[in-house]
Amino acid sequence: MHKNSKLNELLNNSRFDEAASLLKDHLAKAVIIDPSDYKDESWPQYADAISRKISRDKGQEATIPFWEDLLKFFKKELEPTWEHLHKGHILFRLGIANLINDVSIAKKYLEKALDEDRLLEIERAKGKSIDIENKIRKYSAYVMLCIIERIKYVKEKQKFFQELLSPSFDAAIRGDKVDPDLVKEAVEYIVPQQGWEQILETRKELDLVFKLKLKTATISLTGAFLENILLSILYHHLNLSTAQGKNILEAELGKLLEEAIKRSIFPSDSIKTACRTINIFRNRLHPGNELTQKYKLTPRVAVTIKIFFDSVLVDWAKQISDKKSAQT
């Protein structure tokens, strides 16, 4: 797939079956792409490119047959030759794709993906004794299971996930960091100037604990960052004195979020749901909650949540800008 030129040509013309066949052909030949090399991350990137284009053209649910077919190809065509191959990425994507329809099915795929990650860590250890359960906490399947566990009390889960699974969320799962200047510009576009100083001071603290990979502090300050943004919009822009019946200057994140939803300050459901997710994680920081969780808060989980919110802020500003442009 030299420079992805052939793949890009097929995807640009929505020739998905041919794109999938091209990927499988290269996997079978194992010349450019080696399916047995767990360090080779190129084939998951190619598969994701196909899946993203299918999703944009036909919707998230339409990616399921693609990933199911790729899983079958690994089991039936590749593994008889190569023996066991790592299929964690495929199972993870099947888990994500099924979230909008059936959370229980999604969890089963994600748990299978985590089983694959366990096998991969055992292979990497080459006979050395390792803490497998600690090792797998860095994988995307673990992050997603952690998120699912924390939103178990949310009503209308399918709708929640349909709104959550945005390009911003996918970028966060991949670990695509957002340029800090873009985040600063987004804040200054979304928020009245009176709130900039306090918000950006909180942001500096968040960036510091993020670099240190302090999981609890990262989640707490991501929540505080959102809290400051909502307060500034409600207090300085809308001139509100209360939030859900409480003095707005004393209201916690949950009250501010409810008031923000009531006042329709979010430009889309995906932005609203992203902010609800931040609030849920902030609320679950109590040590008693953490003791009862199967999937613990880890540095990778905290990093994902923070990157997600960074990406959401940039998207938030863009959506507001696009709406203003459309009205002129």
Q: What structural keywords apply?
A:
single chain; 328 residues; mainly alpha; Serine Threonine Protein Phosphatase 5, Tetratricopeptide repeat; 2 domains; two-stranded antiparallel ribbon; 17 helices; 2 strands; 71% helix; globular
SSE topology sketch:
Elements (H helix, E strand, L loop, with lengths): L4 H8 L3 H14 L12 H17 L5 H19 L5 H11 L4 H23 L6 H4 L4 H11 L6 H8 L2 H8 L5 H11 L5 H16 L3 H23 L4 E2 L2 E2 L5 H10 L6 H15 L3 H6 L6 H29 L1
Antiparallel strand pairs: 1-2
How would you sum up this structure, described in words?
This protein is mainly alpha-helical. It folds into two domains: 2-153, Serine Threonine Protein Phosphatase 5, Tetratricopeptide repeat (Alpha Horseshoe), CATH 1.25.40; 167-327. 71% of the residues lie in helices and 1% in strands. Strands 1-2 form a two-stranded antiparallel sheet. Strand 1 (242-243) and strand 2 (246-247) form a beta hairpin.
The largest β sheet comes out as: 2 strands, antiparallel
Which class best fits the helix and strand makeup? mainly alpha
**Can you count the beta strands?**
2
Number of helices: 17
Widest β-sheet, arrangement of strands: 1-2
**SSE ordering:** HHHHHHHHHHHHHEEHHHH
* Average of the residue pLDDT scores: 92
> Termini, distance in Å?
44 Å
Shape estimate: globular
Strand content: under 5%
* Low-confidence regions: none
How many domains?
Answer: 2
Task: Sum this structure up briefly.
The chain has helices at residues 5-12, 16-29, 42-58, 64-82, 88-98, 103-125, 132-135, 140-150, 157-164, 167-174, 180-190, 196-211, 215-237, 253-262, 269-283, 287-292, 299-327, and strands at residues 242-243, 246-247. The protein is mostly helical. Strand 1 (242-243) and strand 2 (246-247) form a beta hairpin.
